[in-house]
Amino acid sequence: MPKNALPLNPNNIYRIASEKEGQLPFFEGGVAAGFPSPADDYLERKIDLHELLVEHPAATFFVRVEGDSMTGVGMQSGDILIVDRSLKPENGKIVVALLNGEFTVKRLHKKGDKLYLLPENPSYDPIEVTEESDFQVWGVVTYVVHRAR
């Protein structure tokens, strides 16, 4: 069983809602992460997070992260990943994969004729995908949603 595998549990996978839930206020001027600028105009527009984050609704799903093998790229346990099944799982992309009956999120790495799933935490070892492995990429991670900590 791969470390940080996501249990094959319906509570961890979410489908995209078929209709949009609406738009939220979006302040075009941004927010200063350094010194505030009182000269900035506070232009308000509307932003639709569904439209912004989901390029291919029919091929996109959400999945909740469990574990800490991807903390090096900012993925924490409890975060929600937006995963697009229509994107090609290229070398170096972060993917959600089904490996020997278990879901896992890792970086896809091809080296020569070998394929690996790489964690982004030095406490975990790379997983080699062999011909004997029951392996399928379910999709490419496009966004990570988490609370500010």
Explain the overall architecture:
- The protein has one helix at residues 49-53; strands spanning 13-15, 24-27, 44-47, 60-64, 80-84, 94-99, 102-111, 114-118, 127-129, 135-145.
- The chain folds into 2 domains: 1-15 and 55-149, Umud Fragment, subunit A; 17-53, no CATH class.
- The protein contains 1 helix and 10 strands.
- The protein is globular, with a radius of gyration of 18 Å.
- The relative contact order is 0.23.
- The protein is mainly beta and 149 residues long.
- Helix content is 3%, strand content 38%.
- A hairpin with an 8-residue loop joins strand 8 and strand 9.
- Strands 1-4-5-10-6-7-8-9 form an 8-stranded antiparallel β-sheet, with no helix packed on it. Strands 2-3 form a two-stranded antiparallel ribbon.
